[in-house]
């Protein structure tokens, strides 16, 4: 094979048409209030674990909703379940419940 | 948005008396295209066009790669306009999309910030002793062909139709970012629905393919390919487009911009070598044409006169569909019958092994 000195970069686009949304749909079905998330990031801003680690709750649950499950379970394990995010969520979403639900559904990933 | 909304974005295109500015990339990689554009304008359409040997590169590649400063490119562009004024022309037409974008950008800069125009006039006078007038009309050469598309259709010897099935050829059109994405009102159809190539294809009997990544960049992007290590990003863009268009089985791609023509053509070879993927039918590449070549084929020019032997992906399958008569043995014979060399065999090519060439050699 010819060595061109470069290779085709992989795009970082999330292709919802190709992603398997089965698990995501299950999560949204069991926790429909997650659909009201406006992505404000208050949960991440106040996160105790986020202050100590790279854990970003908003990023992880947004990716999971788009069918990007890789690494989600490991990330969610960083949550201390303190519940501060739930107190501050402007939509009143049971964020701690979301953490537990994602862990339960995506244990294989 | 409605499909017809392109009609909101119209531009004035001069009808005659053009000053022609060549393109660095087109005249090197597709030399027949510029020659045939001049021939179509002057011989087929009877228009007056001046091909000035004194003009230079607009330095757009250097400008977009941050090696040519703004003041320098302004002075270079002012010199082109000065040459046009000296030759007695008022309508400027450029072969390159990058140049077209540069001219548009600088004319707007001079309008918005008149002091930059004054400084440019001063710089030009100090450097060359020349003075310039702002062109009355600025068009890309595709605008000029678009303007004359119905006249070309009347003189056409063939249509963009598959002679074997009678069906219109399926054409992917690629406009080029600098045509209308910078200044949408300076392009026919704006940036959302550029109609410049679609109009030509529809007038000449072809069918436009509308695919998801139709407006995506080809990945040319100047800095993206100038540095070898960055070219993976560049090729990824063409890869994305080709992946998106392949399911629609286009017969050929027609490009507006010289850089896009080069990249969509040559990256097919690179992708085939890297991944073994080809996007055309029968396991070959998709032929990539410039709009001048497409117009030339419609008007009955010989494909080798159009310079189509310079393409990476062989065009013979397309010529067969169009019913173009050509001499395979003359493919790699340049002017006066001199052998010009031939490319190595590649996956994207269909006709690379032809004993006739070897006999001639």
What topology does this entry show?
The complex is a heterodimer of chains A (109) and B (361).
Chain A: H1 22-30, H2 42-46, H3 48-52, H4 57-65, H5 72-76, H6 84-88, H7 95-105
Helix pairs in contact in A: 1-7
Chain B: E1 18-21, H1 24-29, H2 31-44, E2 49-51, H3 60-64, H4 70-87, E3 91-94, H5 97-112, H6 114-128, E4 137-140, H7 141-147, H8 149-155, E5 170-174, H9 177-180, H10 196-203, E6 207-208, H11 223-226, H12 231-245, E7 252-255, H13 258-275, E8 288-290, H14 291-298, H15 316-322, H16 355-360
Parallel strand pairs in B: 1-2, 1-3, 3-4, 5-6, 5-7, 7-8
Helix pairs in contact in B: 2-14, 4-6, 5-6, 7-10, 12-13
Number of strands of chain B: 8
User: What helical percentage do the residues of chain A reach?
Assistant: 40-55%
Oligomer: heterodimer
Total number of helical segments of chain A?
7
Mean pLDDT of chain A: 93
Relative helix content of chain B:
40-55%
Strand content of chain A: under 5%
Description:
The complex is a heterodimer of chains A (109) and B (361). Chain A is built from 7 helices and no strands. With 109 residues, chain A is mainly alpha-helical. In chain A, helix 1 runs antiparallel to helix 7. Chain A is globular and about 60 Å long. Chain B is an alpha/beta fold and 361 residues long. Chain B contains 16 helices and 8 strands. A 4-stranded parallel β-sheet of chain B has the order 2-1-3-4, sandwiched between helices. Chain B has a 4-stranded parallel β-sheet with strand order 6-5-7-8, with helices on both faces. In chain B, strand 7, helix 13 and strand 8 form a beta-alpha-beta unit. Chains A and B meet through loops of A and helix 12 and helix 13 of B.
């Amino acid at each position: 094979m010819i060595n061109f000195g470069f290779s085709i970069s992989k795009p970082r686009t999330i292709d919802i048409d190709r992603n398997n949304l089965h698990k995501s749909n299950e999560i949204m079905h069991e926790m429909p209030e997650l659909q009201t998330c406006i992505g404000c990031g208050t949960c991440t801003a106040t996160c105790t674990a986020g202050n100590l680690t790279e854990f970003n709750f908003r990023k992880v649950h947004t990716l999971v909703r788009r069918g990007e499950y890789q690494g989600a379970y490991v990330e969610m394990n960083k949550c201390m379940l303190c519940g501060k995010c739930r107190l501050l969520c402007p939509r009143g979403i049971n964020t701690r419940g979301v953490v537990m639900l994602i862990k339960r559904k995506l244990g294989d990933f | 948005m409605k499909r017809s909304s392109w009609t909101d974005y119209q531009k004035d295109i001069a009808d005659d008396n053009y000053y022609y500015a060549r393109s660095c990339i087109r005249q090197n990689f597709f030399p027949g295209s510029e020659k045939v554009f001049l021939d179509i304008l002057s011989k087929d359409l009877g228009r007056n066009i001046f091909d000035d040997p004194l003009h230079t590169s607009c330095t757009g590649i250097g400008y977009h790669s941050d090696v040519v400063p703004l003041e320098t490119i302004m002075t270079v562009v002012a010199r082109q306009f000065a040459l046009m004024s000296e030759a007695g022309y008022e309508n400027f037409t450029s072969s390159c999309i990058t140049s077209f974008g540069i001219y548009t950008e600088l004319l707007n800069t001079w309008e918005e910030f008149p002091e930059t125009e004054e400084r440019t006039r001063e710089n030009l006078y100090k450097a060359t002793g020349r003075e310039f007038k702002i062109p009355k009309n600025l068009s890309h050469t595709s605008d000029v062909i678009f303007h004359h598309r119905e006249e070309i259709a009347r003189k056409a010897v063939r249509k963009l139709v598959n002679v074997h099935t009678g069906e219109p050829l399926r054409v992917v059109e690629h406009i080029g970012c600098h045509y209308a994405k910078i200044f949408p009102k300076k392009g026919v159809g704006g940036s959302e629905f550029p109609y410049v190539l679609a109009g030509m294809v529809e007038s000449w009997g072809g069918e436009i393919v509308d695919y998801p990544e139709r407006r995506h960049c080809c990945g040319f992007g100047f800095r993206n390919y100038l540095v070898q290590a960055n070219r993976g990003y560049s090729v990824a863009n063409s890869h994305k487009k080709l992946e998106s268009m392949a399911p629609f089985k286009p017969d050929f791609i027609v490009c507006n911009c010289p850089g896009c023509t080069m990249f969509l053509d040559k990256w097919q070879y690179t992708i085939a070598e890297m991944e073994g993927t080809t996007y055309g039918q029968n396991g070959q590449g998709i032929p990539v044409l410039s709009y001048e070549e497409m117009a030339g084929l419609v008007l009955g020019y010989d494909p080798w006169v159009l310079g189509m032997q310079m393409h990476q992906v062989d065009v013979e399958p397309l010529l067969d569909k169009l019913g173009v008569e050509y001499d395979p043995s003359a493919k790699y014979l340049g002017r006066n019958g001199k052998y010009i060399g031939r490319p190595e065999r590649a996956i994207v090519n269909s006709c690379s092994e032809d004993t006739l060439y070897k006999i001639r050699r």
